[in-house]
Amino acid sequence: MGSTLLSACGGGNLDTDQPATPRLASVSNFRDVAGAAAGYPTVDGKQMRRGAFYRANALTLSTADAATLNKLGIASVYDLRTPGEIARTADVLPSGAISETLDVLGVNDFVTPTFDTAAAAVAFMEGEARAYVTGAAQRVGYGELLTRLANGAGAQLFHSSAGKDRAGWVAALLLSIANVPLDVIMQDYLLSNVYLAQSIQARTATLQAQDGDTVAAIESPLFNVQENYLQAGFDQVQASYGTMASYLTQGLGLSQATIDMLHARLVV
Asked: Is 139 exposed, middle or buried (0-12, 13-18, 19+ CB in 10 A)?
């Protein structure tokens, strides 16, 4: 994917002509947290380190994609889904990887409610993003994940169901810890729409065929990411904690030593 796609996502200052990771047809939202080329830039003139942390949707790996993923040396896989989601779609793990489950929502299953309007669906997604900041179970879950990522050995992968919301929030936190500019963090978040484009189109077509165009239009905000979703989370961080640093330490319970370890792993 090239810079033209990034321009379509709201910015064109990231070079993605040399992808950091292989594209996986069976796990379409798999990518390196650090981005592409030489890694995302930081505000203090450094660059992110590729090959440390990966993000993805559910690991429904084909045989060919499993062989490709095995070459990356992933040591740990953190599954952020609920027990119900895991029961419906089990992971296919990379060779040698240890699987750890961390239900960051703290519920037995995630069932999307029905909506009467697209605006209501958008409001739901924004509410979910804010709950990542305010919810007790979410704060415990995300804090535990970041602690494990800091202390884990080798390359590590975390994933949710589509790899765009829960995993997208984790990626945004890691990029924030790495001191990546906010506009780059937002562009990276929006890239889920590019990586998941085929899946989004397929889900929309299926819904149109089953329930009609109106229902498909109402539910379409659930299938993608929008800038206002991530912004809702960031706005809640400011409202609840004042700064990202306070959210990490007070909200997620991270020690400064843990944050420093993450930064050291994230930045060259």
From this structure: buried
C-alpha to C-alpha distance for 246 and 244, rounded to whole angstroms:
5
3-state SS assignment for residue 133 = helix
Q: Where are the beta strands (DSSP E) in 67-206?
A: 74-79, 98-101, 155-159
Q: What is the largest CA-CA distance in the chain?
A: 53
Work out the pLDDT band at 36, boundaries 50, 70, 90: confident
Question: Domain 3-266 adopts which CATH fold?
Answer: Protein-Tyrosine Phosphatase; Chain A (3.90.190)
Count of alpha carbons within 13 angstroms of residue 170, beta-carbon side? 35
* pTM of the complete model: 0.92
Residues forming beta bridges with residue 31, ordered by sequence position: 55
Nearest to 22 by CA among 48, 58, 46, 50: 50
Q: Is 260's pLDDT higher than 90? A: yes
Domains of the chain by residue range: 3-266
The label of the residue with tokens 């989601």 reads: 85
Tens digit of pLDDT for each residue in 147-188? 999 999 999 999 999 999 999 999 999 999 999 999 999 999
Extract the tokens encoding 96: 């040698």
Alpha carbons 118 and 220: distance in angstroms, whole number = 7
Q: For residues 59 and 4, what is the distance between their CA atoms, to the nearest angstrom? A: 28
Distance CA 173, CA 153 (A): 20
Distance CA 97, CA 34 (A): 20
